Amino acid sequence: MSITEVIEDEMNAQEQETLSTEFFDELLSSLPKEKGQRTPDIFLYQGFWCQPKEIQAIISIQKHYTAEGTDLILATIPKSGTTWLKALSFAIVNRKQFYHSQKDHPLLTSNPHELVPFLEYKLFADNQIPDMSSFPRPRLLATHMPLGAMPDSVRNSRCKLVYLVRNPFDTFVSIYHFIDKIRPKALGPFSLEEAFDMYCRGVIGFGPYWEHMLGYWLESLRNPHKVLFLKYEEMKENTSFELKKMAEFLGYPFSREEEEDGVVEGIAKMCSFEHLKDLEVNKMGKGAIVNFENKHLFRKGGVGDWVNHLTPLMVERLTNIMEQKLACSGLSFKLLL
Ligand code: A3P
């Protein structure tokens, strides 16, 4: 290493140090905050709600992640089907190397989050600046960040984004159950009513949800070769059709022979909720994202569970909000199948 590189290295380290102490504390104290769901507080950073560690990672991503033209980025709000999207994308992109029915397919022994890393929870977490130069191409990556918060290289390069949206009613119920399972006991209870009120005010991780989805939705309309916008409910209804759409968009279209051989259905089945949920790694494993049990990533995996949780008043409130926020956007949801 040359002396210039050593100095640069040290400067980088110092910058990171400053980021994690004085600068960061000062930054946090200047941000609007609310009671957190998994951490004591959650902060409004660049227009969306985040935990402190996420903000730290986002700053680092904005500074150090340079998208390449071949990068494939999966984007979601938490609990909208990220795990499923990661499994499907990994299976599509790597199917020449790993045939879906292969006994040692990586999805049989690794949780999808281990195979498709989050920028903010794995790669740039804890002040790390990963060396991504040796990653196999295309780099299959994931994020919960809103589109507007992504570094310029994401917009300026030819990288592609797949966004999966889920109806806001089921997403809320999924978030609520997930938080209930993994919330530290020391933070005290978190009622459904309180969680719902926060959700309706936009206060959820990376929310408001309507802004998150609209950012990707509008870009998918403007630039359909850049952003593929998928809906959880449509994926559930017709997985094979949506899978083919995804494969085409990602640059890995299924050949006629593959279709005749049942590869599309095979991948859909391998990545199905029922199959993934029962794998040892997903029943007993831990830490695929951060330090919680993988089993909490699999609950019911359906459409319409909100009817079992929300009162008519809650439904009315959220319906009004979504109608108002999505007015004229052309974006709508199936609430039941
Ligand atoms: P429910 O809580 O409604 O069951 P995320 O992966 O973004 O954390 O989202 C979790 C939600 O997706 C959970 O919803 C979970 O059960 C569901 N899910 C996980 N794997 C799935 C799969 N393979 N197919 C469909 N849904 C899945």
TrEMBL record:
<comment type="similarity">
    <text>Belongs to the sulfotransferase 1 family.</text>
</comment>
<keyword id="KW-0808">Transferase</keyword>
<dbReference type="GO" id="GO:0008146">
    <property type="term" value="F:sulfotransferase activity"/>
</dbReference>
<dbReference type="InterPro" id="IPR027417">
    <property type="entry name" value="P-loop_NTPase"/>
</dbReference>
<dbReference type="InterPro" id="IPR000863">
    <property type="entry name" value="Sulfotransferase_dom"/>
</dbReference>
<dbReference type="Pfam" id="PF00685">
    <property type="entry name" value="Sulfotransfer_1"/>
</dbReference>
<protein>
    <recommendedName>
        <fullName>Sulfotransferase</fullName>
        <ecNumber>2.8.2.-</ecNumber>
    </recommendedName>
</protein>
<feature type="domain" description="Sulfotransferase">
    <location>
        <begin position="70"/>
        <end position="327"/>
    </location>
</feature>
